Amino acid sequence: MITKSIPSILTLGNLCLGVISIILVFNERSGMAAIMIIIAMLLDGVDGRVARALNAQSEFGKELDSLADVISFGVAPAFIMYVVALQDVTPILSWFVTALFPICGALRLARFNVKSSSPGHFIGLPIPAAGGILATVALFKGDVSPIVFIITSIVLALLMVSNIRYPSFKRIGIPKSAVWVIPVIVIVALIIGIMFEEHLSKVFFIPLILYALYGLKKNVRRRSKRKQQYNIQEEEQSEKHA
């Protein structure tokens, strides 16, 4: 029974870190708040794999995971962005941008739960990646204009509900014998995060934004190929009719 509960415990850890992140950012600890989101991403990345390794998959775990993700990668990053970068912006605009992100995140998760995607791909930017980008980009407040944060938040929200395909790494599993290593990895990640608070958060921004841009690039290339094929077909048909 306890073994079957391990994936849900990891999911609850993800949710707990999201709540702690919100508390931290309202106590002017934005760097540590972003670290909590990154560690929550780690837990979110392993709970499903652990469930498959232990043969403990369930609809309950799936729904719990979605609810935790809305808080940890939707609400918490939106609050980080609001507290760090948007409080000096017109209230109506800042409130709208702050609310839009978790709303689109919830829609993204609802679609994921009811609509199957092609193997190896997600439809729309996954909410953990979007939340990780939003939480870490807010730490660049001193170097970037507020309008950049507003545009970034809106673009990320729209990417989550878009039809752009992003690569999925779910096929990379965890052997049952290696499940015990996960708590050790989480503890080590937490210690490193505390030691290198803001620097580590900014470092994680780089691979996350590259992932988001990769999906956009592949989508543009896919559309370009379709357009070329359509033009070729049009030319072939016109030659037949000539």
Descriptors:
8 helices; 242 residues; two-stranded antiparallel ribbon; mainly alpha; Four Helix Bundle (Hemerythrin (Met), subunit A)
Per the principal axes of the C-alpha atoms, what is the gross shape? globular
What percentage of amino acids are in beta strands?
under 5%
CATH class: Mainly Alpha
Give the strand order of the largest sheet, numbering strands 1, 2, ... along the chain: 1-2
Structural domain tally: 1
Which structural class matches the secondary elements? mainly alpha
As a whole number of angstroms, the C-alpha radius of gyration is 20 Å
What's the tally of helices?
8
Q: Would you identify the CATH architecture? A: Up-down Bundle
- In the predicted model, the low-confidence regions spanning at least 5 consecutive residues are none
What oligomeric state best describes the polypeptide chains here? single chain
Which sequence of SSEs, written as H and E, runs from N to C? HHHHEHHEHH
What's the pLDDT, averaged over the residues?
82
Largest sheet: 2 strands, antiparallel
Counted beta strands:
2
Helix content: over 70%
Distance between the termini: 73 Å
CATH fold group: Four Helix Bundle (Hemerythrin (Met), subunit A)
In short:
With 242 residues, the protein is mainly alpha-helical.
Describe the structure.
The chain has 242 residues and is mainly alpha-helical. The chain has a single domain, classed as Up-down Bundle (Four Helix Bundle (Hemerythrin (Met), subunit A)). It is built from eight helices and two strands; from the N terminus they run ααααβααβαα. The chain has helices at residues 2-26, 30-53, 59-86, 91-114, 127-137, 146-160, 181-195, 197-241, and strands at residues 121-123, 165-167. The chain has a two-stranded antiparallel ribbon with strand order 1-2. Helix 4 (91-114) packs parallel to helix 6 (146-160) and helix 5 (127-137) packs antiparallel against helix 6 (146-160). The radius of gyration is 20 Å and the shape is globular.
